[in-house]
Design a protein that fits this description.
mainly alpha; 0% strand
């Protein structure tokens, strides 16, 4: 128990950017869920079992429209297809972690991935302790936000328009931190360039998967060069 508390205490500061993003965004989800006729228990169960921000927003609309379970499952899969690419890049980091890797795979949100990819394991913790604590803390923030929103939704009337910009702001903070943490910025320029090119070629509705495929392929090809250059700096 003492080791668990130590891991949470040390990891907490790394999770603060996600805390300030997930609580208000989770509350917005809770408000929407409450307006669709579902209470805090639904918010808790969905946040624990699904833990997919965009997917949960989508599911609220699908539930309201009377969509079937297969339709919900298919839409959720397509929406989070990008996580396959995240998973490939985390294989080296999760190697040797043990059975807890299944929870880490489940809890690999965009924001958790950004922190795992950016932050070094702090002194005094193993990578198993750090990654598990980070994932669990971020998961708890989303659960708390969702339950709070669903609980308060029946008491106060809040206009949730524009609250999804919190996630954009959170991504911006994580990108800035990653830029400052690394001296080699070629991957960032590659990501920006390929994404813009894919947007122009495939359009706003279809650019994400092609961009991720190209970025992943190029990074795998130039990975030895990047590692050698990072080691020399």
């Amino acid at each position: 128990m003492a080791s668990v508390l130590k891991a949470i205490r040390i990891t907490f500061k790394y999770s603060l950017p996600v805390l300030f993003g997930y609580i208000p965004l989770g509350m917005a989800f809770g408000f929407l869920l409450r307006s669709a006729g579902y209470g805090p228990l639904w918010a808790f169960v969905m946040s624990v079992v699904i833990f997919g921000g965009t997917a949960q927003y989508l599911i609220v609309g699908l539930l309201s429209a009377g969509a079937s379970v297969p339709q919900v499952a298919l839409m959720t899969f397509l929406l989070h297809f990008r996580h396959i690419f995240y998973g490939v890049s985390t294989i080296p980091k999760f190697r040797g972690i043990g059975a807890v890797k299944w929870y880490l795979m489940f809890g690999l949100t965009d924001e958790t991935y950004a922190l795992i990819a950016t932050e070094e394991v702090p002194k005094g913790l193993t990578k198993t302790q750090f990654y598990t604590a980070l994932t669990a803390l971020n998961h708890s923030y989303w659960i708390i936000g969702g339950v709070l929103g669903a609980s308060l939704g029946s008491l106060i009337n809040i206009n949730t328009k524009g609250m999804d910009f919190v996630m954009t702001a959170l991504f911006t903070v994580l990108v800035v931190e990653q830029w400052k943490a690394h001296k080699i910025h070629l991957p960032a320029f590659l990501g920006f360039g390929v994404t813009i090119a894919a947007l122009l070629v495939f359009g706003a509705d279809n650019f994400l998967v092609p961009a991720l495929i190209v970025i992943t392929a190029v990074l795998l090809i130039i990975r030895p060069y990047l590692e050698n250059k990072e080691a020399r700096l």
